[in-house]
């Protein structure tokens, strides 16, 4: 399967490189993108969404059950007998909740990884996935333990604990974004400076736009897929631009200029800081909702603030379902604005279109309610991990960019843009989980 995917990717790159700029600017992009990959993206969303919901509900139900049957209270008493100190009890209790949540979500998480592996989005072996999951669990235990210990200490000390909590959430969100390139990202990714002629060109481009001190790195991935082709990490003195190795190896210099310009536009707009503040606001509001709901649930006779935090954790997992669309909406707005500014910055719309045809975009929003697109987008429609069209939403919908794929289905199940023999598209194997 990996060999077939590599062959397909090479064929697609040759096809994209051969598209004349005049055709990119004149022809609807829906007739340029690969239909098999669009169909695979739709299938991927259909398979991943149930797994994502299962992971969230599994964690919420596990924590709720742990509290409801009195397990939280019994474990609290056992910790007090064994550890003695209240700070140690709170930390260990919080870490335990993280273990319960991660254990409950392990099967849905494994399912999601298998889906991505079968669909060609991950080439990581089972042991690599297991290592990363265990590492994520250990980090979650440390974070949950610290949160429980500090939050319960504040609740005990002052009635204004929520003010300190809000300040702490904002500070942690900003600090997390600040130290991510050096303390968090290296645990999961491998980076190297972007070298060669492309690196020199990228450095000159960044310097010309006023970001001479911002390093441009390449991320070496096992799977070598173009999802998240470019991203900005860090803030202030730690900020850097990261390009995926698959994009660096296959894109034209003009396409890389477009990616760099998009990230520079996000730096110009202070999007990393804005996103950190938005995430902090989401956490604050979500926590407030969970606490208010928990206060209205009758107390058990053996409850206290330590055991009660289990219920708050279960409710937070459910509130997370509502928070994700809000966070995605913020990312959508920032990404689309940056892309518009990148086209203006480079003055090369054809290169932008070529980059989108070649690599597409990660999932920002999936919708089948085409009548609502006008309210959500002003320039770009994003669907199923891939860009279908770049333009005004009305033109996209009325031009049939989505309908052409949806309506023209061959009898053997292959989705195509038209009923022709598909000669103009690169060969792609069927990718079905």
Structural class call reads: alpha+beta
Strand order of the largest sheet: 1-2-4-3
CATH class descriptor of one domain: Alpha Beta
Low-pLDDT segments = 1-9, 360-394, 396-433
Order of helices and strands: HHHHHHHHEHEEEHHHHHHEEHH
Strand content range: 5-15%
Alpha plus pi helix count = 17
**Range of helix content:** 55-70%
Shape: elongated
Q: How many strands appear in the DSSP assignment? A: 6
**Shape-level CATH architecture of one domain:** 2-Layer Sandwich
The CATH topology of one domain corresponds to Zincin-like
Description:
This protein has 433 residues and is an alpha+beta fold. It has a domain at 190-268: Metalloproteases ("zincins"), catalytic domain (Zincin-like, 2-Layer Sandwich). Helices cover 66% and strands 6% of the residues. The protein has helices at residues 2-17, 21-26, 35-68, 71-83, 86-104, 106-118, 126-157, 161-184, 196-208, 245-250, 253-268, 271-295, 305-346, 349-359, 373-376, 393-398, 403-407, and strands at 190-193, 216-220, 230-233, 240-244, 380-383, 386-390. Strands 1-2-4-3 form a 4-stranded mixed sheet. It has a two-stranded antiparallel ribbon with strand order 5-6. Strand 5 (380-383) and strand 6 form a beta hairpin. Helix 3 runs antiparallel to helix 13 (305-346), helix 5 (86-104) packs antiparallel against helix 7 (126-157) and helix 5 crosses helix 13 (305-346). The radius of gyration is 24 Å and the shape is elongated. The termini are close together.
Topology:
Blueprint: H1 2-17, H2 21-26, H3 35-68, H4 71-83, H5 86-104, H6 106-118, H7 126-157, H8 161-184, E1 190-193, H9 196-208, E2 216-220, E3 230-233, E4 240-244, H10 245-250, H11 253-268, H12 271-295, H13 305-346, H14 349-359, H15 373-376, E5 380-383, E6 386-390, H16 393-398, H17 403-407
Helix pairs in contact: 3-5, 3-6, 3-13, 4-5, 5-7, 5-13, 7-8, 8-12, 9-11, 11-13, 11-14, 12-13
């Amino acid at each position: 399967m990996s060999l077939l995917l590599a062959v397909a990717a090479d064929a697609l790159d040759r096809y994209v490189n051969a598209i004349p700029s005049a055709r990119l600017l004149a022809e609807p992009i829906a007739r340029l993108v690969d239909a098999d990959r669009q169909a695979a993206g739709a299938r991927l969303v259909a398979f991943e969404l149930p797994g994502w919901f299962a992971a969230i509900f599994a964690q919420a139900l596990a924590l709720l059950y742990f509290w409801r049957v009195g397990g939280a209270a019994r474990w609290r008493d056992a910790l007090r007998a064994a550890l003695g100190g209240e700070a140690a009890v709170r930390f260990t209790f919080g870490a335990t909740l993280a273990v319960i949540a991660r254990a409950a979500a392990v099967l849905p998480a494994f399912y999601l990884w298998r889906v991505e592996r079968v669909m060609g989005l991950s080439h990581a072996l089972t042991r690599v996935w297991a290592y990363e999951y265990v590492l994520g669990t250990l980090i979650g235990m440390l974070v949950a333990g610290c949160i429980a210990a500090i939050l319960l200490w504040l609740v005990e000390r002052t009635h204004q604990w929520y003010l300190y909590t809000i300040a702490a959430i904002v500070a942690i969100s900003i600090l997390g974004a600040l130290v991510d390139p050096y303390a968090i990202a290296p645990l999961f990714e491998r980076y190297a400076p972007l070298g060669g002629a492309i690196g020199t060109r990228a450095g000159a481009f960044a310097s010309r736009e006023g970001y001479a001190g911002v390093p441009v790195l390449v991320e070496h991935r096992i799977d070598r897929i173009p999802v998240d082709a470019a991203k900005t990490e860090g803030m202030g003195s730690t900020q850097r631009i990261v390009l995926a190795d698959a994009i660096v190896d296959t894109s034209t210099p003009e396409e890389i200029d477009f990616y760099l310009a998009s990230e520079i536009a996000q730096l110009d707009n202070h999007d990393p800081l804005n996103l950190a503040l938005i995430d902090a606001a989401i956490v604050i509001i979500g926590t407030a909702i969970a606490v208010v709901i928990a206060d209205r649930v009758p107390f058990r006779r053996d409850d206290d603030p330590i055991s009660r935090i289990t219920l708050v954790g279960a409710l937070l997992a459910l509130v997370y379902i509502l928070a994700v669309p809000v966070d995605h909406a913020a990312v959508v707005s920032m990404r689309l604005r940056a892309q518009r500014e990148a086209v203006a910055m480079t003055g090369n719309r054809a290169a932008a279109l070529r980059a989108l045809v070649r690599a597409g975009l990660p999932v920002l929003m999936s919708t089948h309610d085409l009548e609502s697109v006008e309210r959500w987008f002003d320039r770009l429609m994003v669907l199923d991990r891939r860009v279908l069209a770049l333009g005004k939403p009305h033109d996209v919908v009325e031009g049939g960019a989505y309908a052409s794929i949806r309506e023209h289905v061959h009898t053997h199940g292959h989705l195509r843009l038209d009923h022709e023999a598909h000669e103009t598209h690169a060969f792609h194997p069927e990718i079905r989980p």
